[in-house]
Amino acid sequence: MPNSRVFLVVVDNSPEMQAALRFACRRAKASDGQVALLRVIEPTEFQHFASIGNLMRAEARQEAETLLNRLAGDVNTVSGHLPVLFVREGNPRDELLKVITEEPSISVLVLAADTGPGGPGPLVTALTGKYVGKMRVPVTIVPGSLTPEQIDQIT
Q1: Structural domain of residue 54, as residue ranges?
Q2: I need a labelling partner for 105 at 20 to 30 A (CA). Which of 52, 53, 117, 153 fits?
Q3: pLDDT tens-digit profile of 28-64?
Q4: Would residue 19 count as lying in a domain?
């Protein structure tokens, strides 16, 4: 098992997430570290019938676990170690901050910034602005437009 740095990546549906994941995997491999993956399930808006809301939550959790398990194989291939997996439900920013607070092994947060006209994305914006003081670990921001080859060259 690795015994040094743990690089946390937030797994979302953005195309730039792949850049953050590759960067974290390559840095973990170079430093005999490990990658941790966090998938946050946002609460369902359907509250009229509890049983339907519970079913939707269970399906979302299953989808999150399936995605993380698929990505775990990719992480293992690139980094040489299986990742730590976290699934949380709630606001992505709040849950990310909780995981970092609760897990002392996490030493670096790796995010990718959207390079499009919409800005870098809500997590990058929040964590480099108003919430930067709540971070206990450094944040590495990877340009989301980097290719795997470009990431390999810099890691």
Answers
A1: 6-154
A2: 153
A3: 999 999 999 999 998 866 556 667 777 788 888 999 9
A4: yes
